[in-house]
Amino acid sequence: MQTPLLWHLPISHFSEKVRWALDWKRVPHRRRVMPPGLHPFGGLLLTSGRGFTMPVLVLDGRRIGDSTAIISALEERFPSRSLYPADPAERARALELEDWFDENVGPPARQWGFNALLTEPEAVRAFAVKQTEWAPFSVPVEAFAPFAKAFLAVRYSTADQAGVEEARGELVMALERLEAELDGREFLVGDAFSVADLTAAALFYPLVIPDEGPWRPVRTTAFLEFQDSVRERPGFRWVEETFRRHRRDTGV
After folding, report:
1. Measuring CA to CA, which residue among 231, 206, 221 is closest to residue 112?
2. Contact 193, 223 (CB under 8 A)
3. Whole-angstrom Cα distance, residue 251 to residue 246?
4. Which of helix, strand or coil describes residue 30?
5. Which of 56, 94, 155, 184 could form an SS bridge with 194, CB 3.0 to 4.6 Å?
6. Which residues contact residue 125 at a Cβ distance below 8 angstroms, ignoring those fewer than 6 apart?
């Protein structure tokens, strides 16, 4: 068997979801960064037109896009340290929650997070530096920053202020849903860490910025204003604790 190869974006929360799954299962694999901004084209090429998002996992000759499909393939190929509950009802519930957090946290966290990031020059510059680390040659930050702003506005509607405000509201509602599902418990489903916990924590990382997360951006005034308003919520603290307990022991 060839070593699995993960094409990913270092700061992406959906990429973090899959990196976490690979690390949780302790699957030896290689990682390659898909050049940010070009990743939709890269996704189309890798999947022969089936998808345009990152991450993409090359596994046993297959090129699998979509984080949910990737984890499903990993569960089948590497069942050890399973992320799917053994009980059928609990498994169905975990998969339902995975889908819900994918749809209701992933997009708004990205739209709001990038919008807040782009409000201050220092944060934009640090973002540009981070996004060009993959390159084997020097990329002028001054040239990359305007491109990044334009790409994010088109791809993720970061310039749509009404949409950004809606995204903030969606994140608050998602925290409320997380807290209701937990109801004071450690895990979302059953009594063990599952794909539901991994997904919720990974997709909330752009808001929470846990120490074990993949990136610590410059926190702009706009970022801190919203983060501080939810910092003491049980769901926010749960994300921090879940990263501390269950991301740290994967070798990160």
Report:
1. 206
2. no
3. 10
4. strand
5. 94
6. 141, 145
212 CB contacts (<8 Å, ≥6 apart)?
243, 244, 247, 248, 252
First to last CA, the chain: 25
In contact, 5 and 32? CB cutoff 8 Å: yes
In tens, the pLDDT along 223-242 reads 999 999 999 999 999 999 99
Residues 102 and 199: beta-carbon distance below 8 Å = yes
3-state secondary structure of 156: helix
Rounded Cα–Cα distance for residues 212 and 146 (Å): 30
Amino acid at position 2, single letter: Q
Alpha-carbon distance of 230 to 25, in angstroms, equals 32
44's tokens: 């189309």
The bridge status of strand 5-8 relative to strand 30-33 is parallel
Gyration radius (Cα) of the chain, Å:
18
pLDDT in tens, 114-151: 999 999 989 988 898 888 887 776 667 777 778 888 88
| Distance between CA atoms of residues 34 and 24, nearest Å | 22
Beta bridge partners of 56: 7, 65
